[in-house]
Design a protein that fits this description.
Elements: H1 2-5, H2 14-20, E1 26-31, E2 39-43, E3 49-54, H3 59-79, H4 88-99, H5 112-118, H6 130-137, E4 146-147, E5 156-158, E6 164-170, E7 175-179, E8 185-188, E9 193-197
Parallel strand pairs: 1-3
Antiparallel strand pairs: 2-3, 4-9, 5-6, 5-9, 6-7, 7-8
Helix pairs in contact: 3-4
Length: about 200
């Protein structure tokens, strides 16, 4: 697995990642894209531990996600399972593990200040940090989608699950949108990626 990981993470991070993964009981698997999460960690019934990461992530997002999940493993080893998944123990471990990667050989110089800010109090998902998430998405390959903040007010857009929405007004940070089929009102983070539907009659 370590041989294949070098295809997914920044080259300068490989030695550190190899050291972190030098556990007989820890397995890392690269999976096809899962819309609801970038990766996960679980303790298997046989006592081993498994991390899965989505294969479609850019190298910087992949590395952050991998260290996020390794932090779960290290937290379990140190504190057991009777703690909050993303509580203070996990945050402390995640901060400690990421510190050695926050250098220009690993991350672009314009990403480093955003990472430093984020890791003062890391969240359960880096997607909740809109500024960092938008910056990291700049390194993704084109996918034909746009950010919801670029969708004109009143325009129709489609989510990955095929549901159609009409964009409404902006709240403090998020955008309102009405699902066309149900009429229900939803709110979206500005970094949500959607497919713009130019003419409703064409769908």
């Amino acid at each position: 697995m370590l041989d294949s990981l070098q295809d997914f993470i920044p080259e300068a991070s490989l030695d550190q990642v190899t050291a972190l993964l030098s556990h007989d009981n820890l397995v890392v698997k690269v999976k096809q894209e899962r819309i609801t999460r970038h990766g996960d960690y679980r303790r298997l019934p046989n006592g081993k531990h498994q991390i899965t990461i989505n294969s479609n992530l850019n190298p910087y997002r992949f590395l952050i996600t991998l260290i996020h999940e390794i932090a779960h493993f290290e937290t379990y080893k140190s504190y057991g399972k009777l703690i909050k998944p993303h509580g203070s123990e996990w945050k402390s471990v995640f901060q400690h593990l990421m510190l050695g990667f926050l250098r220009p050989e690993v991350f672009p110089s314009d990403v480093l200040p955003l990472l430093a800010s984020h890791f003062k109090n890391p969240k359960a998902s880096s997607d909740s940090d809109t500024v960092l998430s938008l910056k990291l998405k700049q390194f993704d390959p084109p996918n034909g989608k746009i950010f919801i903040f670029d969708v004109p007010t009143g325009a129709t857009f489609r989510l990955h699950n095929g549901k159609l929405f009409r964009k409404g007004s902006k709240r403090r940070k998020r955008f309102e949108a009405t699902e066309l089929a149900s009429g229900r009102l939803y709110v979206f983070n500005p970094n949500a990626e959607v497919e713009l539907v130019k003419e409703l009659d064409d769908i």
